UniProtKB/TrEMBL annotation:
The chain crosses the membrane at residues 20-40, 47-65, 71-88, 95-112, 118-135. Keywords: Membrane, Transmembrane, Transmembrane helix. It comes from Tangfeifania diversioriginum. The keyword Membrane applies. It holds the Pfam family DUF4956. The lineage of its organism: Bacteria, Pseudomonadati, Bacteroidota, Bacteroidia, Marinilabiliales. This is DUF4956 domain-containing protein.
Length: 209
Protein backbone atom coordinates (compact mmCIF):
# COMPACT_ATOMS: atom_id res chain seq x y z
CA UNK A 1 0.00 0.00 0.00
CA UNK A 2 2.80 2.42 0.93
CA UNK A 3 4.60 1.52 -2.30
CA UNK A 4 1.44 2.16 -4.30
CA UNK A 5 1.13 5.65 -2.76
CA UNK A 6 4.85 6.30 -3.39
CA UNK A 7 5.42 6.90 0.32
CA UNK A 8 8.83 5.97 1.62
CA UNK A 9 9.16 4.84 5.24
CA UNK A 10 11.09 7.99 6.17
CA UNK A 11 8.30 10.11 4.69
CA UNK A 12 5.87 8.69 7.23
CA UNK A 13 7.90 10.39 9.95
CA UNK A 14 7.75 13.66 8.00
CA UNK A 15 3.96 13.40 7.60
CA UNK A 16 3.60 12.67 11.32
CA UNK A 17 5.68 15.75 12.15
CA UNK A 18 3.60 17.80 9.72
CA UNK A 19 0.33 16.76 11.35
CA UNK A 20 1.59 17.33 14.90
CA UNK A 21 3.23 20.67 14.12
CA UNK A 22 0.19 21.82 12.17
CA UNK A 23 -2.09 21.09 15.13
CA UNK A 24 0.38 22.76 17.48
CA UNK A 25 0.59 25.88 15.29
CA UNK A 26 -3.20 26.03 14.91
CA UNK A 27 -3.58 25.87 18.69
CA UNK A 28 -1.05 28.69 19.17
CA UNK A 29 -2.83 30.80 16.55
CA UNK A 30 -6.18 30.19 18.26
CA UNK A 31 -4.80 31.34 21.62
CA UNK A 32 -3.27 34.50 20.13
CA UNK A 33 -6.19 35.46 17.86
CA UNK A 34 -9.28 34.35 19.79
CA UNK A 35 -8.32 34.26 23.46
CA UNK A 36 -5.93 37.24 23.45
CA UNK A 37 -6.45 39.64 20.54
CA UNK A 38 -10.22 39.36 20.03
CA UNK A 39 -11.16 39.45 23.71
CA UNK A 40 -9.15 42.61 24.32
CA UNK A 41 -9.67 44.46 21.03
CA UNK A 42 -13.32 43.36 20.63
CA UNK A 43 -12.73 42.95 16.89
CA UNK A 44 -13.49 39.84 14.85
CA UNK A 45 -13.18 41.02 11.26
CA UNK A 46 -9.58 39.77 11.05
CA UNK A 47 -10.36 36.19 12.12
CA UNK A 48 -10.32 34.83 8.58
CA UNK A 49 -7.16 36.69 7.55
CA UNK A 50 -5.16 35.69 10.61
CA UNK A 51 -6.06 31.99 10.46
CA UNK A 52 -5.70 31.79 6.67
CA UNK A 53 -2.28 33.46 6.69
CA UNK A 54 -1.13 31.32 9.61
CA UNK A 55 -2.09 28.08 7.82
CA UNK A 56 -0.64 29.19 4.47
CA UNK A 57 2.67 30.40 5.91
CA UNK A 58 3.10 27.31 8.08
CA UNK A 59 2.51 24.86 5.23
CA UNK A 60 4.61 26.90 2.81
CA UNK A 61 7.58 27.12 5.15
CA UNK A 62 7.30 23.55 6.44
CA UNK A 63 7.14 21.95 3.01
CA UNK A 64 9.73 24.17 1.33
CA UNK A 65 12.08 23.87 4.30
CA UNK A 66 12.21 20.14 3.60
CA UNK A 67 13.85 20.98 0.26
CA UNK A 68 16.46 23.17 1.97
CA UNK A 69 15.09 26.66 1.36
CA UNK A 70 15.35 27.35 5.08
CA UNK A 71 15.96 30.72 6.77
CA UNK A 72 16.49 32.89 3.68
CA UNK A 73 13.03 32.04 2.44
CA UNK A 74 11.48 32.66 5.85
CA UNK A 75 13.04 36.12 6.03
CA UNK A 76 11.82 36.78 2.51
CA UNK A 77 8.26 36.19 3.72
CA UNK A 78 8.60 39.01 6.22
CA UNK A 79 9.83 41.32 3.46
CA UNK A 80 6.94 40.36 1.17
CA UNK A 81 4.28 40.92 3.82
CA UNK A 82 6.02 44.14 4.82
CA UNK A 83 5.45 45.73 1.40
CA UNK A 84 1.98 44.29 0.68
CA UNK A 85 -0.89 46.77 0.91
CA UNK A 86 -4.42 45.44 0.92
CA UNK A 87 -6.78 47.12 -1.53
CA UNK A 88 -9.44 47.47 1.15
CA UNK A 89 -9.33 49.69 4.24
CA UNK A 90 -5.92 50.32 5.75
CA UNK A 91 -5.04 47.90 8.56
CA UNK A 92 -4.42 49.66 11.90
CA UNK A 93 -0.90 49.38 13.40
CA UNK A 94 -1.99 47.03 16.17
CA UNK A 95 -3.63 44.63 13.71
CA UNK A 96 -0.50 44.72 11.53
CA UNK A 97 1.56 43.89 14.62
CA UNK A 98 -0.59 40.85 15.34
CA UNK A 99 -0.29 39.84 11.68
CA UNK A 100 3.50 39.98 11.99
CA UNK A 101 3.31 37.88 15.18
CA UNK A 102 1.10 35.27 13.48
CA UNK A 103 3.63 34.98 10.64
CA UNK A 104 6.50 34.74 13.12
CA UNK A 105 4.79 31.99 15.15
CA UNK A 106 4.01 30.01 12.00
CA UNK A 107 7.60 30.28 10.76
CA UNK A 108 9.01 29.26 14.16
CA UNK A 109 6.70 26.26 14.46
CA UNK A 110 7.47 25.14 10.91
CA UNK A 111 11.24 25.65 10.82
CA UNK A 112 12.09 24.28 14.26
CA UNK A 113 11.13 20.66 13.64
CA UNK A 114 14.76 19.51 13.44
CA UNK A 115 16.08 21.74 16.21
CA UNK A 116 13.51 22.08 19.02
CA UNK A 117 11.70 19.40 20.95
CA UNK A 118 8.00 19.87 21.66
CA UNK A 119 8.83 20.93 25.22
CA UNK A 120 11.15 23.67 23.97
CA UNK A 121 8.66 24.71 21.29
CA UNK A 122 5.88 24.88 23.87
CA UNK A 123 8.07 27.11 26.05
CA UNK A 124 8.79 29.45 23.12
CA UNK A 125 5.08 29.76 22.24
CA UNK A 126 4.09 30.29 25.87
CA UNK A 127 6.81 32.92 26.22
CA UNK A 128 5.44 34.81 23.22
CA UNK A 129 1.83 34.57 24.39
CA UNK A 130 2.82 35.60 27.92
CA UNK A 131 4.69 38.64 26.60
CA UNK A 132 1.67 39.70 24.54
CA UNK A 133 -0.64 39.26 27.50
CA UNK A 134 1.69 41.35 29.68
CA UNK A 135 1.79 44.15 27.09
CA UNK A 136 -2.00 44.11 26.73
CA UNK A 137 -3.13 43.64 30.32
CA UNK A 138 -0.38 44.35 32.85
CA UNK A 139 1.39 47.28 31.23
CA UNK A 140 -1.87 48.53 29.68
CA UNK A 141 -0.09 49.42 26.45
CA UNK A 142 -3.28 49.80 24.47
CA UNK A 143 -3.40 51.50 21.09
CA UNK A 144 -4.92 54.97 21.16
CA UNK A 145 -7.60 55.43 18.54
CA UNK A 146 -9.16 58.58 17.11
CA UNK A 147 -12.53 59.71 15.83
CA UNK A 148 -13.45 62.81 13.82
CA UNK A 149 -16.65 64.52 14.98
CA UNK A 150 -18.62 67.34 13.36
CA UNK A 151 -20.00 69.19 16.39
CA UNK A 152 -22.73 71.82 16.27
CA UNK A 153 -22.78 73.17 19.85
CA UNK A 154 -19.88 75.54 19.37
CA UNK A 155 -20.77 77.43 22.54
CA UNK A 156 -19.32 74.43 24.44
CA UNK A 157 -15.92 75.07 22.83
CA UNK A 158 -15.27 77.90 25.26
CA UNK A 159 -12.46 77.05 27.68
CA UNK A 160 -14.80 77.55 30.66
CA UNK A 161 -17.17 74.83 29.36
CA UNK A 162 -14.66 72.05 28.71
CA UNK A 163 -16.36 69.68 31.15
CA UNK A 164 -19.71 70.14 29.43
CA UNK A 165 -18.06 69.57 26.03
CA UNK A 166 -16.39 66.33 27.08
CA UNK A 167 -19.53 65.03 28.79
CA UNK A 168 -21.64 65.76 25.71
CA UNK A 169 -19.12 64.13 23.36
CA UNK A 170 -18.87 61.00 25.52
CA UNK A 171 -22.66 60.70 25.72
CA UNK A 172 -23.02 61.00 21.95
CA UNK A 173 -20.13 58.78 20.88
CA UNK A 174 -20.13 56.23 23.71
CA UNK A 175 -16.35 56.42 24.18
CA UNK A 176 -14.24 57.64 27.10
CA UNK A 177 -12.46 60.71 25.76
CA UNK A 178 -8.83 60.93 26.87
CA UNK A 179 -8.13 64.16 24.97
CA UNK A 180 -9.46 66.10 22.02
CA UNK A 181 -8.22 68.47 19.34
CA UNK A 182 -10.27 71.18 17.61
CA UNK A 183 -9.43 71.01 13.91
CA UNK A 184 -11.47 74.00 12.69
CA UNK A 185 -14.55 76.09 13.50
CA UNK A 186 -17.13 77.16 10.93
CA UNK A 187 -19.03 80.13 12.38
CA UNK A 188 -21.21 80.41 9.27
CA UNK A 189 -22.67 76.94 9.89
CA UNK A 190 -22.12 76.96 13.66
CA UNK A 191 -20.16 73.70 13.51
CA UNK A 192 -16.71 72.54 14.47
CA UNK A 193 -14.60 69.53 13.49
CA UNK A 194 -13.11 67.87 16.56
CA UNK A 195 -10.77 64.86 16.72
CA UNK A 196 -11.38 62.68 19.79
CA UNK A 197 -8.69 60.40 21.17
CA UNK A 198 -9.62 57.33 23.21
CA UNK A 199 -8.37 53.87 24.08
CA UNK A 200 -8.87 51.33 21.33
CA UNK A 201 -12.00 49.34 22.16
CA UNK A 202 -12.60 47.92 18.72
CA UNK A 203 -14.06 51.07 17.17
CA UNK A 204 -12.30 52.20 14.04
CA UNK A 205 -11.46 55.72 13.01
CA UNK A 206 -14.51 57.33 11.42
CA UNK A 207 -16.46 60.57 11.11
CA UNK A 208 -19.61 61.40 13.06
CA UNK A 209 -21.94 64.26 12.19
Amino acid sequence: MLQFLSIEPDQIDLLTKLALRFAFNLASTFIIVVLLYARISKRKEFYFSYFAISIAVFLLVFLLESVKVELGFALGLFAIFGIIRYRTDAIPPKEMTYLFIIIAVSVINALSKDYFSYIELTFVNLLLVGALWALEKILMMRQENSMLVVYEKIENLHSDRENELIADLEERTGVKVKRYQIENIDFLRDTARITLFFENNGRSKREIN
